[in-house]
What we know:
alpha/beta, repeat, F-box_dom
Amino acid sequence: MMNRRVRRKCVKGAQKLDLGDQLETEDADYLKLNADGFVDWTRLPDDTVIQLFTHLNYRDRANLSSTCKSWRSLGSSSCLWQSLDLRAHKCDWGIMASLASRCSSLQKLRFRGADNADSLINLRAKSLKDLSGDYCRKLNDSTLSVIVARHKLLESLQLGPDFCERITSDAIIQIAFCCPKLKKLRLSGIRDVNKDAINALATHCPDLYEIGFIDCLKIDEMALGNVVSLRFLSVAGTTNVKWDLASESWSKLPNLKGLDVSRTDVVPNAVMRIFSSLKSLELLCAFNCPSLEEDTTVYTKSNCHGKTMLSFFNDTFTKLSPLFPNIEDERTIFSVWRNGSKKKDSNLDEFMTWVEWILSHSLLRIAESNPNGLDQFWLNQGADLLLGLLQSSQEDVQERAATGLATFVVVDDENTNVDVGRAEAVMKGGGIQLLLGLARSWKEGLQSEATKAIANLSVNPAFAKSVAGGGGITILASLAKSMNRMVAEEAAGGLWNLSVGEEHKGAIAEAGGIKALVDLIFKWPRGGDGVLERAAGALANLAADDKCSMEVASVGGINALVTLARKCKHEGVQEQAARALANLAAHGDSNTNNAAVGQEAGALDALVQLIRSQHDGVRQEAAGALWNLSFDDRNREGIALAGGVEALMNMANISDDLKKSKLEV
Length: 665
C-alpha cells in the first residue's frame, strides 16, 4: 500500500533525484549517481519508473520519451523489466499500451484489482512466467482468459488471498489449455472448481506440482487425485469437502509431500487414512480444524506414521527442527535455512518455501477471525512465527506476516484495544526493528503492511515509545508524503496513534509530520475517507498542543480542516475535522488561532451544519468547536448569523429527548 520516497525532477533531458533516507542499502545499488547527481533511467527499479509513468499525463509521457535517451532505451534493459509491481498504480489502457513494447523480457508481474487486470489485456510479455494479483473480486473469466492466452509460458499464477467470486471453472480450463508449462496455481475464493477444470489441469499441465484452492466453496475431491504430478496441495478454508472421498482420492497421489487442510472440517478418520496410505507425505498442516482439536489423539498417531503435523496443539518450531540437524535454537530454523551454506538442497528449499507460504496464509486468516482460546498459541509461538516469516525472501509472505502482526494484536476492533501481552511478544522478538526496516523499503507493498502493523501496535504506549526511539516518527512522516493513497493512509494512522502521547507531538512536528498531514487533505479530497479521517484525527491530537497548534495553522491546516468540515460527507472525517478545529481554537496563541478559525471562509457555517448531523460524535465535536470560538466577539456574531444559536438549542432539545426516552425504557 505504500510508495517510495524518491522525488523526481526532469532537468535538461536527464533525471535528477533527491534521495530520501528511506532506501535500503541493497535498493540503493540501483540508484548510482554520477558526479553531477544524475542517474541513468535504465538503472532505476522498475516500480520507480512505473510510478513516475503512471503519474504523468499523456503529453508529458510523450515529451519524456522524446527527450530522454535512456527512457527510449528502456525496452532494451532486460534487467529493469524482468519484474514489475503494478499494485500501487492505476494503470489505464494507454499506459499499458505504452509499456507493452518495453516488456519483452518481463518475467514476473504483480497487479491489484480488476482495473489493472483489464489494462493487462494490452500486455504482451512473451517471457512472462509469474503472474500474481490481489483484490481480484471483480476479475472475470473473459479478462483472465485473454491474459493467459497471451502469456503461454506462465509457470506460476496466483489470485488472492481475497475472494475471486467471478472466476469459474471455465477460466481454469482456459488456464490449463493456454499454459502447459504451469507449475504453481493458487486461487482463492472460487465458488466451484469442477472435475472438468481439474482434469484439464491434469491433462495439459504435466509439470504442475502445486495447487492451492483456498477458501473455495466447493471442489471436486475425486478429480484432484488425477493430478499425479502434485507435490503440494492446499485446500485451507475450503468448505463442503467430502472427506471420505478426498482421503480415498488423494491417497493415490504418488508424489504428494505437503497437504494443508487448515481451517476446514476435516475429520480424524480421513487424516489417519491419508497418513497410512500416502507414503510420500511428509507434512500435514492442520491449524484451526475443530474436529481434530476435539480428538487430539490424531496428533500423537501422526508420529507413528512418521509424518509431521502442524497444529495449535504442538510447537511448529519443534516439529520442523528435525529438518535441520544440530540446530542450537529451534526458533531460528527459518533464518538457518535461508542463510545456509551455498550448497543448497533444492528439495528442502522447495519444501520450506511452501511451508512459509501456507503458514503466512493460515496465520493471517486465523488472526482475522480472532477465535477464542488462542492467547497461549500467539504468545508461545504465533508471534515468533510471524516475526520469522517477516524475514522471508518471498515478498508476499512478508506482507501477509506484517498484516498478521497488525491484526492479531488488536483484540477489540470497535475500540481498537491492543493486547498488551501480544504487543510485548512482538517487541521481545525484535519486531520493532524488523517492521521499521520493512517500512524503509522502497517496495510499496512491504511499506504499507509494515506501517499498518506499526500503527496498530503504537496504540500500546510502550510500543509507541520504542517506535519513536527507533526513528519511527521520521519514517512515518516521510511515508505520509507518499503519492500512494494506501501508503499515506497507514502512515497517517501511525501518526494519529503516536500523537496521543504528549512526548511524541514535538517529534512529529520536527519530522515534518504536521505539514505532511495537512498536505494529505489537499492531495486526496475525494475517495480517501480513510486517509482523511486519519490525517484529521492526527491533526486534532496535535492541535491540542500549543506549539503544534500554531504550526498546524501556519501550514494551512485551518483551511484544510474547514474544507473537510464543509465538503466531506463521511461522519468519521467530519467528527475529527470538528475536533481539530475545536482544539485549534483553544490552543496555541488562542486569540490568534481562534480568530483565524472563525474568519476562515465557510468555517462557522460548516460547524453549524455539523451540529445538525444525525451522529452524536459529529454534533458534540462541532458544538465544542463553536463553544471555543464563541470567546471571540466577531465569532459570536458570525455564529448567530449562521443560525448557530438555534442549532445549539435544537441539539440540546434532542439530547433531553434522548435522556427521557432512555429513562422511560
